[in-house]
Amino acid sequence: MDNYFIFSSHCLLNQRVRAGNSYTPGATQKFLTLLGRYPIYLYQLPCPEYTFLGDREKKTQDQWEKIEGFKDFCKKLALEVKKRCQEITKGKTPLLIAIARSPCCSASLVYRGRSLVKGKGIWLQELEKNLRFDIIEFDFKKVEDSIEKIKAFLNQKIGHIEIET
User: Fold this and answer.
1) I want to staple 139 with a disulfide (CB 3.0 to 4.6 A). Which of 29, 55, 100, 125 is the partner?
2) Dmax over Cα atoms in the chain, in whole Å?
3) Is 117 strand, coil or helix?
4) CA distance 87 to 28
5) Contact 120, 64 (CB under 8 A)
6) What is the C-alpha to C-alpha distance for residues 158 and 93, in angstroms, rounded to an integer?
7) How far is CA 4 from the centre of its chain?
8) CATH architecture of 4-158
9) Burial profile 119-148: b = 16 or more Cβ within 10 angstroms, e = fewer
10) What are 4-50's pLDDT values in tens digits?
11) Do the beta carbons of residue 62 and residue 113 sit within 8 Å?
12) Cβ proximity of 95 and 4 under 8 Å
């Protein structure tokens, strides 16, 4: 059986890179415990925000768009990821775990000013131009729901073939 391939947003595996020193206790452990039950390959995507600015306060998508050079940086980073991953994902459609409400990694809603509006993150848009993948959003405010969505997706794609731990 072929192992399934997952692209993980950086902050799911290393919450230290989240803006404003945000931390959700137990989220990473629950995510990894779930993935450990399936035959998967996991690729940790770089965090464009952290790589570009390091520690930072939370910003809205429109604030990120105004930072000189950031959108070009995301474009170059997406091309690097494509170069590294195109061979190992060839002929496969991996799953990308996006981050709810992230200005860079969201798949559905982003903050513009104080408003939460429909839209995709800057980084996710660049990745979509370069790679093909399915998407599920992980919501740090709804960890259990997010875990269940990922589990249901993996059960559908792989089958209910959990590895005994």
Assistant:
1) 100
2) 49
3) strand
4) 28
5) no
6) 12
7) 16
8) 3-Layer(aba) Sandwich (3.40)
9) bbbbbbebbeeebebebbbbbbeebeebbe
10) 899 999 999 999 999 999 999 999 999 999 999 999 999 999 999 99
11) yes
12) yes
Q: What is the DSSP letter of 38?
A: S
Query: In the beta sheet, which residues pair with residue 111?
Result: 116
Q: Is the pTM of this model over 0.85?
A: yes
3-state secondary structure of 107: coil
| Residue 88 binned pLDDT confidence (cut-offs 50, 70, 90) | confident
Give the three-state DSSP class for 104: coil
CA distance 89 to 162: 22
H/E element, 154: helix 143-158
Q: Which amino acid, one-letter code, is at 95?
A: L
Structure tokens at 12: 């799911």
> For residue 52, which amino acid is it?
F
Token reading at 146? 């997010």
Residue with tokens 């690097």: 80
